[in-house]
Amino acid sequence: MMSRLNLPIVGAYVAILGIGGLLAYIGTLWITQRRRLYLAIVAFILSAAGVCTLSFFLWRPPIADVRIDAPRDAAKADSPWFSVEGTVSPPDATVWLLVHPCSPRRVGQPWWVQPRPIGAGAWKAEIVLGSAREGRGQYFQVIAVASPRPHWADLLHYQSFSVNQQLDHPPALPRSDVVTIWRPQ
Q1: Which of 63, 68, 118, 142 lies at a 20 to 30 A Cα distance from 15?
Q2: Is the C-alpha dihedral spanning 167, 172, 173, 174 positive or negative?
Q3: What residues does 108 pair with on adjacent strands?
């Protein structure tokens, strides 16, 4: 099954290949004073191929394994602060926790980005389930997402998040199973 094209990423590929190749072509023509047209064409092809190969290794889909080990599904939280533990592989991958309030009265609630977990490989984090007044008598869904790419590559893919950011849906990153937590009255 083919996924949808991400137009900003496709645009970046075209711009990098086109600009790199064009600069190599113009530079070669200028250095050789327009006497080596074939050398300029070869420089264009090698430059475009090199940038394409480099882009393939830097922008490949992230592969990571992230899990929430504690709590298990159907846990109960007595306060808005709740501790979550898990593991991620590779150990240096960036982990983000997302919390989604499940309310039959309000459909389309956002996913809230939580403070980043502490630890590499095995991690631990404190998440917020509503507030002192809001969120009682409600279910919350929690997932962990991970990116093994460098931070700047996540920025290029619009997959860098800030605490308390609201997302319509979890990002297209490797993710854990959803854990449901009940916060009683």
Answers
A1: 63
A2: positive
A3: none
Instruction: Say which amino acid occupies 33.
Output: Q
Which residue blocks in the chain are alpha helix, DSSP H?
7-31, 37-58, 151-156
Q: Any idea how long the chain is?
A: 185
CA distances from 25 to 21, 106, 145, 154 (A): 6, 58, 42, 31
The Cα–Cα gap between 90 and 122 comes to: 10
Helix axes 7-31, 37-58, angle to 10 degrees: 150
Question: pLDDT tens across 154-171, in order?
Answer: 776 667 788 888 888 888
Whole-number CA gyration radius for the chain: 23
Closest C-alpha among 146, 145, 122, 137 to residue 181: 137
Task: Judge whether residue 3 has pLDDT over 50.
Answer: no
